[in-house]
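Incident log entry.

Two folding requests arrived from the same account within the same minute. Monitoring flagged them as a possible duplicate submission, but the sequences differ. Recording both here for audit purposes.

Request one:
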Amino acid sequence: MSPETPSTPLVPEQRLRRLEDPVGDFPFYNGAPTAISTRQWLWVLTAVVAGFLVLVAPIHWPGGALGALIPALLFPLIPLAAMAQVVPGHWKAIFGKVGGRELRLMWGFALLNIVVSMGIGAIVSALTDVTSNAAAQLLSQSDTAERIGFFAKTLPQLFGEELLTLLPFLALMQLLTLRFGFGRRRALIAAWLLSSMLFGLIHLPTYGWNLVQCIVVIGSARMVLTLPWILTKNIWVSTGAHIINDWLLFGAGLLAASLMAAA
C-alpha cells in the first residue's frame, strides 16, 4: 500500500483484542484521514527533536517563573506546528473527546503504571544501582511559589513527552507496514516497543546515564502509559494518565519529605 492508498476497514484479527477499542484506527500511517509522505514525516520528527532540544538546552529564559514556562510550551508547540503545516485541517486527528470514560481511563492507567513501575523498579534496584530523579529533591527544597511553578510547567512538558513518543509511534507504524511489509498487529507491537525504548533513552541524562534503569524501568513505564493511546487513539487520555502519574509520584515524595522534616 502506498501512502496515497485509502485505508481499508479493520478486521478483528488486525487488532490487539482487548487492548484496543473495537472501532477506529490510528491516524495517518495508512493514509487516513490523509497521507503523510516519508519526507513529511522526517520534517515532523525533526520538529519533535527541535522541541526537545529547546526544552533541555541550557538557555536562561527571561521572566523568572513565567519565563521557565517558555521551553515547556515550545516543546509541544513546535511539533504541533509541523503537523499543522504537513496535514492542515487533519492534525487534530490525534485528539479525541474527553468524557467520563476517558477520565476513568486516565486514573486507571496512571495507578496501574505506578504499581508496574514500582514493582519493576524494586527488582532492578535489587540487582543493580539505580539513580533517583533529582527533580524530586529540588522540589522538596523549593518554596510554595516554586512548587506551583513546577507543577504548572509539567502540564505542557508532559504533553510534549506524549508527542515525542506517539508521533514517532505513528511514523514507525507507517514505515513498518509500507516499507517492510509488517501486518498491522506486528507493526503496532514493534512501534510500541521502539517508541517506549526511545522514551527511556531520552531520560539517560536525568538518571545518570543508567542504561538499564532507563530501558527497563522507564521504558516499561512508558509502555503502560502508551496503552491508553493504543486503546482509544486519543492523545488526551495518555497525556492525562501521564500527568496524574507524575503528580501523584512527585506529590507523594513531597509529602514524605515534609513529614520527615517535621519529625
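Request two (distinct sequence, not a duplicate):
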Amino acid sequence: MSGASQPAPSSAGGGDLRADCSRCFGLCCVAPAFAASSDFAVDKPAGRPCPNLGGDFRCGIHRDLRAKGFAGCTVFDCFGAGQQVSQVTFTGRDWRAAPETAGRMFDTFAVMRPLHELLWYLTEAVALTPPGPLHEDLDTALAETRRLTSGGPQELLALEVDGHRDRVNPLLSRAGDLARGDRAGADHRGAVLIAADLRRADLTGANLRGTVLLGADLRDVDLTLADLTGADLRGADLRGADLRRALFLHRSQVDAARGDHRTALPASVPRPAHWSLPVTPVRRSASRRRAGQR
C-alpha cells in the first residue's frame, strides 16, 4: 500500500483525497489486519507493521506487490486519510519516534479513512448536481464532513462514523438518481452477482450501488450513467466496457478489475499498469506469407 507519492489537490479539511505516501507514516501497512489469501501473502494482526514496510515508511516491494502475492495492497486507497492523520491530526509525530501515540494513531486512521471516502463521494456529487435544494444539502454535508476531519484524536475517536455515513448516504443516492434522470435503468442495488455473465445485460443508467460484481463478465457492456457507488469490481472483466460516464467510479475499483486497451475510462481515472496492452501484429516475411497461402 505504502509506496509511490501521488500529488493531489488539497481539500478544505486540511488533507487531500488521494494517497500521498510521502506524507504518511505507512498507516495502511500497520493499522489494518491482513488475512493470508489471494490478496495477501501473509497473516498480519492489526497494529503490527507489514514485514515489507521499511524504516522510511515505504513499501520494500512496491513495484512487485502483485507478483509477490500482495494484490490487495495495490487496490487499497485511503482517500488521503493517511497523510491527514500523520501530518494534521498528529502534527507530524510518527508512531516510531513517539510510540505512545501508536495505538491512538492507528485507531484514528480507522475513523479518518471512511470520512475521507465520504469527502470524495460528496465532492463528486456536488460537481454532478445542478443548483437547487439537493446541491445545497450536499454542500452542507461536505462542509460538515470536512469539519469532522479536522478534529483532534479524542474528538475523532468519539465520533459515530456509521451514524454520519447513514445521514450522508441518502443524499448521495439522490444525487445518483438525479444524474441518471430519465435514463435510469435496472435496479441492482446490493445484488450479489458474483461471476455473473452480464455481457448481454442492459446496464445503461443502472443502479449498481453496493452491488457485488466479483469476477463478473462485463465485456463490452455500456455502463454510461450507471451508479457504481461502492460496487465491488474485484476481478470483474471490463475488457471493451464503456465507463467514460459511469457515476461515482473510483480508481481503486478500476485497479481491482481486469481490462484492456479497449476499456473506455473517464479522463480522471488512469489506466492500471497491470491491464493487458494492445497486441501488436507480427509482420510476416513475404516468403512465409506465400507459404501460408499454399
